[in-house]
Design a protein that fits this description.
Largest sheet: 12 strands, antiparallel, barrel
Oligomer: single chain
Number of strands: 14
Length: about 260
Amino acid sequence: MRVRALLAVALLAAAGPAYGGAWTLPQGQGQLIVTATGTQADQSFDHDWVARESTRYRKLDLPALLEYGVTADLTAIVSPSLQHVDIAAPTDAERTGLGYSEFGGRYRVLHGKDWVFSVQGTMRIPGTTDTSNPAAIGYTFPEFDARALFGTTFHVGSLPAFVDLQVAQRFRGDGAPNEFRADGTFGLQVAKRWLLLAQTFNVVAEGPGSALFPSYNYSKAELSAVYAVNEQWSVQFGGISTVLGRNALQENGFVLGVWRYF
């Protein structure tokens, strides 16, 4: 697989916690979550799902997710982001600037005492149109993400817990194939102020695109803890890794976040 094609696939990967999940916010209430995710890859998965040494690749994503309850059933979503990408020789490229910014909403379709089913749509606006920079490949064309979300709460013994499941269709362009996405989150409140999160993010390219975008698949796993400082502020810290892939980078890194409820 050519290096430039591999970088194109890597730059499509935008893993991040399913923060809002399937639930909508109460009318007039909101949350702001700022997250830093830094990853590095020195290996990549080939066409046979085998990890092999590759060009060193580093990425830092800094998205801010703002959600606000317009009504009890409708939550508005705005999520701008900053990004830095650094690719070693022989590619020797880097980019710092706006990443994708998302605008949309989540609508609660059905719900019960301890479960909810919602649909969500977001328009993703690129932060650059520079197709000549290898570090910008995959971030230069508008996208649309449509997903269905299901969440339920329960107890593990005496501990409160929840599961959030999402399936999505991401419509892309500029030579990149559309993607099917499936994300899952398991949360367990292990103490009064501590929430543990186990998450998985899975992407399947729907066929190859242009020469820069071969067919690819990858799965990322994230483990993190959220500590509630008080009723308004929480902090998050953890790690993320690409555990399985085909024509994709094997990334490993950290996740740091600050949550604000209002």
